Amino acid sequence: MRVHLVTMPWHPLDLPSLQLGLLRRIVRRARPGDEVTEFHGSLRWAEFLLEHSGGRLRPGDCVEVGSDAIFHGLGDWVFSGVLYDDPGWGTARLRDYAADRGVFIGTALAMRPYAAPFIDACAAEVLAAEPDVVGFTSTFMQNVPSLALARELKRRRPDLAVVLGGSNCDGPMGHALHRNHPFVDHVVRGEAEYAFPALLDHLAAGTAPLDVPGLCWWDGTVSRANTETRRTVAPADIPSPDYDQWQAALDASPVQEHIHPKLVVEGARGCWWGEKHHCTFCGLNGSAMVFRAKPGERLWAEIDRLVRRHRILDVVTVDNIIDMAYFRDFLPRVTASGWDLRLHYEVKSNLTPAQLALLGASGTVHIQPGIESLGSRVLDLMDKGVTGARNVRTLRECENHALTCSWNLLYGFPGECAEDYAPVIEQLPALVHLQPPSGAHRIQLERFSPHFTDPGLGFGKRRPAAMYQHVYDLPEDELADLVYLFDTEPAGIGGAVERRLKEAVAAWRAGHAHSRLLFEEDGGELLVHDRRHGRPRATHRFDGWRAAALRHLEDGRTVPALHRLLTAGGHAVPVADLEAWVRYAFGLGLLFRDGAAYVSLPTWGEPFRLPEGAG
């Protein structure tokens, strides 16, 4: 059989599709006689816009619509007019939505007239490969572009087998996608390593796929959904991706000069923290929370092969959380290689300074540590398993080891109150030298999250998020099964406290670039050079027990614990004097206070900072 694999907008332009890279290997391994080709629709879309708009719509505009506006559905809306055969479909609703929320939609409006001719061109190119099966992978805002092309392919070739899979198809979402779109023959729900080859076997034999777990298929005019399996794919059965066809498409693309390509690898699936303490707001991993990881030696071998083959040094891992064993069997291999790799990793925010140092030494330049809050009670409401003090330490250590840290400050948790945020907001100006969050964001209700599955946690009333009204022409009961994001009654803080939080984070972001708070050792003295935005320039000198206290507080401690350490170190300081000094250092903004614990804020180095958006 000829199998044609498709990824549509809005897959990131700078990344190959891991899903296509894996599926290609899976099919070749299970059915070596099949011919497998790929269509990189996101790349084609950027090319199409650049050419047909005369250069007015550029690859950066694809990022604006497809990534930056992901919670407003703009990317799906661009193609919904094609899906519903109505160029004006949903436009009035989108305009009303955007006006209510202050969302810029000019770029999406400019793109929409190009969607229909693009789908025509895609259909012609895909069918030119004479496929027997076309498999789409769909994540985030790839649903409507994929459905629009699937519909056109079936219109032109009714005998063609159309298959959808990916995270947008997990659980009830996959069945809703199937039963509402009769031009989609099959939907693979869950991991594809076992299910997709089994489906291809049935298609080749012309038999009903009754035994393929989780598969949605048509029994005449009835949409069937096979029972999903609890079996997860073993790491040994997860292949190394094949990006050769992506590389060929990129090399031939006129948009190549506009992007900085990176490789995508997968070391682990699931979340070892979520298996025991599922963060209440998180819907990631869907029905496959069980944590599994490839051995570090194998992951390094895969990266070694890909880097040598594609001559690309930026490597993005898609793991939701790093396997802690990688600090023993993977990162030391990367460090010892001597390669100038630039790794991107998601980690937990309770890593030690030594672990963060190893990440930095390995060539890891970007981490996403899931900080989410700097207040311990709010972190408890999330079931994050860390404290605000620990999160501040992580931000400080990222500065010490030149790690770019991406994080969001989340609020809106049932049970939180103004008193949980007031002390944090008051201290944010002292953190201006540390890397700020992308913003302060009210949480949304995500399918598969504990907030969603257990209404008793505080979100009893919910409905599909408002953005889907300008994306899908479906009744609300069907949307309730199809979509990932939901609107619900606001919880937690609001009003003046919410405004203060947003304003404080905005000020942090505005003042960060030129702010420094640096340690320097000068003989027996410890100097702190304060060059933070909003504060007078100053250099503070500490010696004796005061210098020792500031160093001890880098690990975060209460005053009694600090006193015990100083005493053990030969510093006979009265408790009252220590308490007075801690109040003094806190007043200078050299310490962060989280309940009874204090954390030192100065850093040991001044990493080079690119302006935001550069690189």
From TrEMBL:
Keywords: Iron, Iron-sulfur, Metal-binding, S-adenosyl-L-methionine. InterPro entries: BchE-like, Cobalamin-bd, Elp3/MiaA/NifB-like_rSAM, rSAM, rSAM_horseshoe, rSAM_ocin_1, rSAM_sf. Its cofactor is [4Fe-4S] cluster. SUPFAM superfamilies: Radical SAM enzymes. Residues 74-210 form the B12-binding domain. PANTHER family: ANAEROBIC MAGNESIUM-PROTOPORPHYRIN IX MONOMETHYL ESTER CYCLASE-RELATED, BLL1977 PROTEIN. This is RiPP maturation radical SAM C-methyltransferase. It comes from Streptomyces tricolor.
